[in-house]
Amino acid sequence: MASDSGQDRGKVVTRFAPSPTGYLHLGGARTALFNWLFARHHGGKALLRIEDTDLKRSTQDAIDKIIEGLDWLGLDYDEPPVFQSQRADRHREVALQLLEAGHAYKCFATPDELEAMRTEQRANRQPLRYDGRWRDRDPAEAPAGTPFVVRLKTPIEGETVIDDAVQGKVRVANAELDDYVLLRADGTPTYMLAVVVDDHDMGCTHIIRGDDHLNNAFRQLPIIKAMDSIEGGWPEPVYAHVPLIHGQDGAKLSKRHGAVGVEAYRDELGVLPEALFNYLIRLGWGHGDKEEFTRDEAVALFDIDAVGKSPSRFDLKKLLNLNAHHIREADDTRLAQLVAPEIECAVDLDLLARAMPVIKVRAKDTHELAAGAAFLFKQRPFDLDAKAAALMDDESRQRLTLVSQRLAAENDWTMEALEATTKALAEELQLGLGKLAQPLRAALTGTTTSPGIFDVLVLLGREESLARIDAQAA
After folding, report:
1. Of the listed 255, 290, 317, 318, which one is catalytic?
2. Cis peptide bond upstream of 381, omega within 30
3. Residue scoring higher pLDDT (300 or 257)
4. pLDDT, tens digit, for every residue of 150-178?
5. Which of the chain's termini has less CB crowding within 10 Å, N or C?
6. Neighbours of 127 (CB within 10 A)
7. Which PANTHER family does the annotation name (predicted)?
8. How do residues 51-83 score in pLDDT, each as one tens digit?
9. Domain boundaries, the chain
10. C-alpha dist (Å) from residue 96 to 89, 171, 304
11. How far is Cα 166 from Cα 298, in angstroms, rounded to an integer?
């Protein structure tokens, strides 16, 4: 990527830049979503950068899971991903430009010297920061061949001010910033340098990220200002630092709160991507009292100025309630294809899709959908669960025999006709409808919970329904 690429500053360009040392967690997914929505809302570009410079901890599996998770959420990107590890030469090039222009310098301090410096600072209860001992020294003072790092010469007077799009105006005294390392002794660039160079080269106009990176912005801006003074064309991006997500107890979200990868919400909790998409929008952003958003609505309404300054709280119950809403709104054929692999026996996809309207009204997740539909594909003879079996006494079997005889004589196998026939039998026997419906449900499904019993009869069809009833009546 050339150093002047993507510099059409009239167009919004955002980036999501995960580190592939683990899964795509909720916080990362929300950051990705906010960046994507902001770019789409403003007709700009959304870009993806994989920050894989930690080669010991970055794994291909993590990269694959991050990209898979983003794709599952429906976040598409306008260019192929940029891999930070492949751009080390470009990062070194900028560091050497800064060194040559006097905005950076060689530091020959040894590890032992630096540790002694920190020990003294601890003893004096001073902040642990580099003391600038090589900032103004002549590199010729170091013995030939002595290893060195390249440090940024940060401003030491005045203050740096960031007008953050979420946090507002934030000030830091420059004296609090130390001359941090740009290039290590082995010539490898540091994260702080790589991020700034990549953001510039990718043409990023807005940096939307967690507020745990706010301090980094004050360390990164001096690089931008220095490079702008050297070659021009290094504008400061708009920063937007979004508060982190907390658990219900107010503590930072962790594994004990359910801080797992987005694939776990899909695979273990049975959450639809549009439900997680919708839920993540509402973690820190809002549009009045509106809770449910389609993708198009989210793009039309989202803007960064409505993101709050306070941490949001993750609520699994609320996510699952929202998931239930999206399940009810989802296409039945899609749901059938989604849950079919969870049903252990052979599945008729057409029947499963036809059953979805009556099954999905009770389900909060895809696992409940699969469990609720499993009765359709049971092979006779099948066992009844404990509660269903408890209903099957001699009296219930006698009633099933009567039900079977009446239903077998029914020519119109529709819900209305079947309900009328069954109710008429219950009245003849001077029974409440439930006294027939409960054993009938047990015989047809093997359980005591299911969609409406007449829905079940229609879905199973005449032949299968009568065969299941007779098998239990015998």
Report:
1. 255
2. yes
3. 300
4. 999 999 999 999 999 999 999 999 999 99
5. C
6. 7
7. GLUTAMATE--TRNA LIGASE, GLUTAMATE--TRNA LIGASE, MITOCHONDRIAL-RELATED
8. 998 878 888 999 999 999 999 999 999 999 999
9. 13-245, 255-329, 378-473
10. 11, 29, 36
11. 19
Q: How far apart are CA 387 and CA 392, in angstroms?
A: 9
How many Cα atoms sit within 13 Å of 161 on the Cβ side? Answer: 4
pLDDT reported for residue 255: 56
Q: Is 11 marked as a binding-site residue?
A: no
CATH of 378-473, one of 2.40.50.140, 1.25.40.20, 1.10.10.350, 3.10.20.310: 1.10.10.350
CATH topology for the 255-329 domain? Glutamyl-tRNA Synthetase; domain 2 (1.10.1160)
pTM for this entry: 0.90
